[in-house]
């Protein structure tokens, strides 16, 4: 084997590669020159001539020439030789010039004379690029002032629309016809009678038909239409200014260019993939929807929102003002969908997408909201679940929702197993795999994004699953875990809770589809854990006001360290920190004792070693990696000497066991609250109603995780107060500081009579009232009774101010009512349940303050005082207190009625009234 | 016709009982049944929204015959002057029973800190001081934290007082953090004080402390230090109890060979709740919350809440029990008190047993006035001396006059104050 042959081979390859590099660099430079928007055409052509020879094999002996109509540019001293190649420059199919290259002397024969075939391709590409540039400039320049490239140097007065029309007539008569038609329409809509006369002339000739078969006839018709066009513009000139006409034409021409996208979006037959492709073309063509006419712009935005997001009208109505076509470019790259998909992103996905755009497009609050981020998200469209079911032949499942709920409940664990052991279609597997490549090994959360959420609001969303994934290990392990999670979320559609919920609301027959959001978990790795420094939820409307000074619109934030799961759900064994963004100074907990008692002690994290979602003690987390958590100093305070202060450097070592999560640093030392408040305000204004958002922070940036209209779990849902209430049936009424809520079927009322209470002669008797209430709390049916008492429940100061109880003495009530009776000229303050406020919140116990002495307030004191007292039956040891503690068995006292409490915060009014049990109309 | 409960009338009734035992003359009774001075004033505060709100503040100085009056400042939305009068009178007796040279006072502002931002609260604190700056101070009247007021409030008040008087005067107020004029030993003071009096009681009853067992209710600050000191003396605490936030009930944690406060503290959350799972792992029996009272021990130390020893629960007290040391305020109901008295159980009444706290406040003030701060051992040694002699005086009186301990404590306190008023020639 000779060693020379491979050497020659390598040399040849290297040479070829060098040539390719030269050609490419030449092409890049031509592109660069063409992109230089400010350069005149002359300058552009001169530059092109300068760089062109460098792309050829023998640059030293190479010259170039570019000719565009009358303009010619060439390498100085160019010799026209036979060793030449040339390519025409075309604009809209017509040749307007050429690009040529000449060699000054003979060179060895190659593919095309002395030229390489790659050089031919290069030449043609340059010619094509110049053609595009010319078209672009023709249109733009013409629209501004310039009629034709030939007369470039002589600028004419701005806004001469005649030149454009003239130009269109020459270059694109079809376009001219369509523009004329729109001009006539425009004039007609503006009541120009003469334009209406022109309408019949267009009759039967839709632009689409003009170009097809029957060419001779079409041409004739085109000719005649041109006349109409002239006429149209003549009329236009009488009614519109020159500038107006130019602007209109400009818009319409751009609209025409976006036509393919409009068509893709409007055609219900196109799949999401096709729309995504059309969007890609739109993006590559450098189009911006704001340059289109308003109608087309809105049409596109609405169409895209409807196809990708939701068909909810209110949503689309808002979305069209904020989501531009370009915003979909990035989105469509992260959508996983089955072939021929007609799915959508679902409620959660759409809500977050819209909120992000609203926040980003606010100029007014750019300084506060500018750097709010959204974690990287991939979407599986809502028909993914149908594809999954079809692929695994699980169609039988669709009718399971009509089974008895007990059966559904029994079988559900098996359904989950079947789902987890089923396969995804290859398209979805490929999509999820791509998503994982994009996410790398960052921990993920898989969230449901159901279409039903759009219909019934957020109350429903909690019924479906969200799963956290550590996303560690090999690619195939990660992919398997991701698919397992998606399958489990899919299975939750057939879970008993959502089915029961849907059945109750008559939504069972709706075909539920569910999108999936795969989202990066916000946070940092500390030790073996991955967690955000803090996270939480925020509401526009504060339905849990702990002070009369807090207004409903001051909002509410629930903050926790770590993952936000503990803030989203009510947690019985722990407390999130509550703040009202509109009144940051008024805190639920004031004394150090209270702050410590009601501080979060547990943290939800992702354990990257065991690859599981875990709840750990805050103290443990601090011990293992407290100072490593970015921004931990903003979350924790040191509690010592009955005081709280922000941790200093040394405190991490010496006072580790005295650290409490207070968020003092975050709330008082950073703009966090101002940002949340602004965000809530902005989103509520934009979407036309209160919102509920989820957020998280990795200690550096704030991330928006979710946004949806604020709605409420059952107990907090509002209900209009019946109009025709019979005053005799009203037990109590509140017209101040009312939150949302409804408590439908209460069977007992425990009433501590204010007069009786105040007349008690000694401390011991007053304290016994508290013990009697505690006893009743255990004897009465849970959440089926209301506690009504004077002043402040659980007052720790003077027992005269309210019945001395602890939370465990009242924790089974459904509603806690405080009565403020006027005494000697003043009405006492009520507690708003502050002594165990956070316990009430976490247990969904409603609170109501009553001011019976205010004008026009109904208070059924007689009923409460005269109805038979069941105290002796339920708590015989306290029978002697029957003048003070009254227990009304409502159905027994009223012949079968129950007490309903309806609280309407919008009207700031709440009523407790007697009513037949549900199923029968109120009388 | 029953009259409504009035705390001031109750305090007066208590006083009358002691006055009867002492046979006090009418002018002395008249003087001591009511406060010497009361200040009622308005505190205008500029709120966060720019508006001005006027708060009502007051200071009641019940008696200062034995020294500058002393007592807390309460922030309470429905404060009544009768409550404050009662509490001020109570402070007079409390200081007198431990024989520290201070009188009694109480004050407050009608407000709810839950409705106020920190800045607004600072405005109230400074406004309060401005209104009574001439009538309070280290040699006149010394405030302290109370319901809903914190060391932070005390520092704002101190700062304002010093601004007005143009100099440093940390002795104006107590309850300050260590390093800002606070005293070491305050955390331990109340719990240790309970055990100092308990030790003396055992001596008197001829019981060897090392052979005694005790049951503790609670595991808060007072209980923890009481357990430590008592076990250091050689006694054995067989159980403590704590509130379980998640279960909304309390549990008793029993270990018959003696609880280990350090081990328990390691599994206790910042608010005193013991982790019952981990306690069980450590070998503790987890019993119902009320079980502490029915233990077979010599000593009961209710150190958690009011009204824990009631007519009902007192019946469960074992015969072996000789002493009840009241670490908490008012743990025994009058009904139970009678039962204890009948059974001859020796009661160290709350306002003697838990006077370690107010004694330490006195020490804080003393240290501030001389601007020289003691080491912790010194504070606790002095506390022992004070508590021991206070106990002896009460117990001696109880023995000599055949009085119930609770009555003896009141009688001795009232007699000391009455004597000071006589000596000054007031009555």
Describe it for me?
The complex is a heterodimer of chains A (923) and B (427). Chain A has 923 residues and is α+β, with helices and mostly antiparallel strands. Chain A is built from 35 helices and 30 strands. In chain A, the strands form seven sheets. Chain A has a five-stranded mixed beta sheet with strand order 5-6-9-7-8. Chain A has a five-stranded antiparallel beta sheet with strand order 14-13-12-20-21. In chain A, a hairpin with a 2-residue loop joins β1 and β2. In chain A, α12 (294-308) packs across α13 (313-322). The longest helix of chain A has 32 residues, at 4-35. The radius of gyration of chain A is 37 Å and the shape is elongated. Mean pLDDT of chain A is 82; it is low at 145-159 and 204-220. Chain B has 427 residues and is an alpha/beta fold. Chain B is built from 15 helices and twelve strands. Chain B has helices at residues 7-22, 26-33, 81-97, 118-132, 151-165, 186-205, 221-232, 261-266, 276-281, 311-314, 334-343, 350-353, 356-370, 376-401, 405-423, and strands at 37-46, 52-63, 69-76, 103-110, 141-145, 213-217, 236-244, 249-254, 285-288, 299-302, 323-325, 346-348. In chain B, β3 (69-76), α3 and β4 form a beta-alpha-beta unit. In chain B, α6 (186-205) packs across α7 and α14 crosses α15. Chain B is globular, with a radius of gyration of 22 Å. The model of chain B has no long low-confidence stretch (mean pLDDT 93). Classes of the chains: A alpha+beta (923), B alpha/beta (427). At the A-B interface, α24 and α31 of A face α4 of B.
Please give the alpha-carbon distance between the first and last residues of chain A: 108 Å
Strand pairing plus helix content of chain B: what structural class?
alpha/beta
* Distance separating the two termini of chain B: 36 Å
The parts of chain A where pLDDT drops under 50 for at least 5 residues are 145-159, 204-220
Number of strands of chain B: 12
> What pattern of helices and strands is seen along the backbone of chain B?
HHEEEHEHEHHEHEEHHEEHEHEHHHH
Radius of gyration of chain B: 22 Å
* Main beta sheet strand tally, sense and closure of chain B: 7 strands, mixed
Largest interface: A-B, 54 and 45 residues
Which oligomeric form is depicted?
heterodimer
**General form of chain A:** elongated
Kindly estimate the percentage of residues of chain B that lie in beta strands according to DSSP: 15-25%
Radius of gyration of chain A: 37 Å
Numbering strands along the chain, what is their spatial order in the largest sheet of chain A? 5-6-9-7-8
Return the structural class of chain A: alpha+beta
Strand order of the largest sheet of chain B: 9-8-7-6-10-11-12
* Fraction of residues in H or I helices of chain B: 40-55%
Sheet having the most strands of chain A: 5 strands, mixed
The 3D shape of chain B can be described as: globular
């Amino acid at each position: 084997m000779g060693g020379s042959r491979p050497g020659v081979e390598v040399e040849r390859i290297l040479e070829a590669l060098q040539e390719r590099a030269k050609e490419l660099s030449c092409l890049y430079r031509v592109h660069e020159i063409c992109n230089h928007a400010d350069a005149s055409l002359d300058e552009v052509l001169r530059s092109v001539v300068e760089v062109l020879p460098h792309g050829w094999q023998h640059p030293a002996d190479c010259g170039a020439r570019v000719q565009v109509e009358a303009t010619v540019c060439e390498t100085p001293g160019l010799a026209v030789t036979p060793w030449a190649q040339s390519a025409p420059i075309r604009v809209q199919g017509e040749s307007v010039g050429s690009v040529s290259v000449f060699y000054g002397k003979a060179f060895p024969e190659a593919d095309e004379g002395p030229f390489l075939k790659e050089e031919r391709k290069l030449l043609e590409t340059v010619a094509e690029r110049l053609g595009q540039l010319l078209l672009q400039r023709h249109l733009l320049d013409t629209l501004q002032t310039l009629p034709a490239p030939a007369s470039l140097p002589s600028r004419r007065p701005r806004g001469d629309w005649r030149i454009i029309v003239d130009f269109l007539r020459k270059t694109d008569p079809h376009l001219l016809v369509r523009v004329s038609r729109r001009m006539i329409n425009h004039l007609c809509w503006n009541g120009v009678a003469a334009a209406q006369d022109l309408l019949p002339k267009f009759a039967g000739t839709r632009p689409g038909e003009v170009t097809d078969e029957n060419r001779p006839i079409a041409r004739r018709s085109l000719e005649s239409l041109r006349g109409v066009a002239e006429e149209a513009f003549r009329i236009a000139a009488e009614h519109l200014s020159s500038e107006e006409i130019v602007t209109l034409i400009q818009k319409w021409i751009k609209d025409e260019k976006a036509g393919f996208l409009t068509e893709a979006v409007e055609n219900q037959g196109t799949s999401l993939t096709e729309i995504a492709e059309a969007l890609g073309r739109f993006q590559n063509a450098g189009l911006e929807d704001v340059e289109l006419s308003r109608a087309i712009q809105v049409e596109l935005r609405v169409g895209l929102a409807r196809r990708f997001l939701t068909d909810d009208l209110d949503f689309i109505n808002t979305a069209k003002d904020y989501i531009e076509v370009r915003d979909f470019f990035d989105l469509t790259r992260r959508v996983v969908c089955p072939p021929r998909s007609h799915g959508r992103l679902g409620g959660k996905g759409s809500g977050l997408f819209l909120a992000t755009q609203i926040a980003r497009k606010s100029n007014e609050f750019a300084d506060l909201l500018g750097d709010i981020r959204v974690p990287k998200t991939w979407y599986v469209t809502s028909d993914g679940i149908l594809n999954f079911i079809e692929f695994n032949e699980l169609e039988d499942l669709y009718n399971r929702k009509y089974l008895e709920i007990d059966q559904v409940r029994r079988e559900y664990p098996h359904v989950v197993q079947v789902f987890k052991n089923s396969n995804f279609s290859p398209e979805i597997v490929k999509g999820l795999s791509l998503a994982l490549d994009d996410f790398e090994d960052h921990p993920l959360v898989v969230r449901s994004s159901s279409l039903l959420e759009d219909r019934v609001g957020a109350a429903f969303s909690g019924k479906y699953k969200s799963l956290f994934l550590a996303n560690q290990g090999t690619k195939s392990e990660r992919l398997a875990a991701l698919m397992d999670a998606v399958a489990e979320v899919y299975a939750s559609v057939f879970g008993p809770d959502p089915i029961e919920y849907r059945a109750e609301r008559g939504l069972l027959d709706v075909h539920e589809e569910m999108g999936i959001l795969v989202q990066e978990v916000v946070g940092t790795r500390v030790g073996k854990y991955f967690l955000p420094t803090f996270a939480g939820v925020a509401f526009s409307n504060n339905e849990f006001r702990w002070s009369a000074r807090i207004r409903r619109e001051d909002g509410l934030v629930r903050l926790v360290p770590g993952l936000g799961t503990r803030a989203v759900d009510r947690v019985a064994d722990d407390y999130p920190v509550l703040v009202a963004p509109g009144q940051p100074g008024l805190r639920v907990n004031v004394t150090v004792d209270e702050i410590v008692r009601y501080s979060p002690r547990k943290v939800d994290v992702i354990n990257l070693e065991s690859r599981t979602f875990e709840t750990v003690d805050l103290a443990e987390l601090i011990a293992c990696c407290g100072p490593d958590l970015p921004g931990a100093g903003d979350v924790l305070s040191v509690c010592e000497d009955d005081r709280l202060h922000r941790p200093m450097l040394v405190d991490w070592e010496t006072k580790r066991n005295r650290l409490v999560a207070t968020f003092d640093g975050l709330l008082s030392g950073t703009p966090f609250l101002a940002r949340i408040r602004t965000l809530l305000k902005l989103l509520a204004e934009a979407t036309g109603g209160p919102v509920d958002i989820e957020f998280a922070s990795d200690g550096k940036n704030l991330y928006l995780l979710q946004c949806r209209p604020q709605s409420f779990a059952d107990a907090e849902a509002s209900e209009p107060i019946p109009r025709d209430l019979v005053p005799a049936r009203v037990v109590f009424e509140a017209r101040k500081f009312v939150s949302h809520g409804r408590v439908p079927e209460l069977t007992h009322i425990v009433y501590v009579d204010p007069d009786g209470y105040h007349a008690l002669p000694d401390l011991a008797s007053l304290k016994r009232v508290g013990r009697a209430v505690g006893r009743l709390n255990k004897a009465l049916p849970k959440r089926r009774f209301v506690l009504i008492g004077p002043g402040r429940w659980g007052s720790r100061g003077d027992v005269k101010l309210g019945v001395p109880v602890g939370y465990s003495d009242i924790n089974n009530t459904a509603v806690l009512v405080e009565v403020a009776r006027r005494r000697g000229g003043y009405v006492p303050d009520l507690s708003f349940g502050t002594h165990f406020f956070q316990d009430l919140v976490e247990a969904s116990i409603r609170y109501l303050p009553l001011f019976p002495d205010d004008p026009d307030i109904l208070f059924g004191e007689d009923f409460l005082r005269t109805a038979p007292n069941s105290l002796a039956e339920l708590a015989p040891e306290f029978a002697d207190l029957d003048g003070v503690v009254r227990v009304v068995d409502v159905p027994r006292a009223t012949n079968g009625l129950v007490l309903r409490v309806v609280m309407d915060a919008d009207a700031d009014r709440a009523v407790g009234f007697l009513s037949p049990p549900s199923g029968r109309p109120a009388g | 016709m029953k009259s409504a409960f009035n705390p001031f009338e109750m305090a007066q009734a208590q006083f009358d009982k002691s006055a009867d035992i002492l046979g006090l003359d009418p002018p002395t009774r008249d003087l001591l049944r009511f406060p010497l001075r009361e200040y009622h004033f308005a505190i205008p505060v500029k709120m966060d929204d720019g508006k001005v709100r006027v708060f009502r503040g007051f200071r009641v100085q019940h008696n200062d015959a034995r020294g500058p009056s002393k007592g807390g400042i309460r922030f309470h939305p429905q404060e009544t002057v009768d409550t404050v009068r009662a509490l001020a009178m109570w402070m007079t007796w409390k200081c007198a029973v431990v024989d520290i040279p201070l009188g009694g006072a109480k004050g407050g502002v009608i407000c709810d800190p839950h409705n106020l931002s920190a800045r607004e609260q600072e405005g109230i604190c400074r406004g309060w001081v401005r209104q009574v700056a001439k009538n309070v101070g280290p040699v006149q009247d010394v405030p302290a934290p109370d319901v809903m007021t914190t060391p932070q409030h005390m520092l704002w008040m101190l700062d304002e007082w010093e601004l007005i008087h143009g100099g440093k005067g940390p002795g104006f107020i107590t309850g300050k953090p260590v390093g800002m004029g606070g005293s070491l030993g305050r955390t331990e003071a109340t719990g240790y004080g309970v055990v100092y009096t308990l030790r003396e009681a055992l001596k008197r009853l001829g019981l060897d402390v090392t052979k005694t067992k005790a049951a503790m209710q609670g595991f808060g600050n007072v209980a923890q230090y009481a357990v430590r000191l008592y076990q250091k003396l050689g006694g054995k605490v067989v159980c403590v109890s704590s509130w379980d936030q998640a279960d909304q009930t309390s549990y008793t944690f029993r270990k018959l060979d003696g609880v280990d406060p350090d081990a328990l503290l390691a599994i206790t959350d910042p608010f005193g709740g013991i982790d019952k799972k981990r306690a069980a792992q450590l070998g503790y029996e987890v019993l119902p919350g009320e079980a502490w009272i029915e233990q077979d021990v010599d000593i009961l130390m209710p150190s958690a809440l009011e009204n824990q020893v009631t007519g009902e629960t007192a019946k469960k007290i074992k015969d072996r029990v000789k002493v009840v040391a009241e670490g908490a305020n008012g743990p025994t109901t009058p009904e139970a008190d009678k039962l204890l008295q009948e059974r001859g159980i020796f009661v160290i009444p709350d306002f003697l047993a838990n006077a370690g706290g107010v004694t330490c406040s006195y020490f804080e003030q003393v240290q501030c006035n001389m601007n020289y701060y003691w080491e912790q051992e010194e504070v606790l040694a002095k506390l022992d001396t004070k508590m021991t002699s206070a106990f002896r005086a009460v117990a001696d009186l109880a023995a000599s006059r055949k009085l119930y301990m609770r009555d003896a404590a009141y009688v001795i306190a009232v007699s000391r104050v009455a004597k000071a008023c006589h000596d000054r020639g007031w009555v």
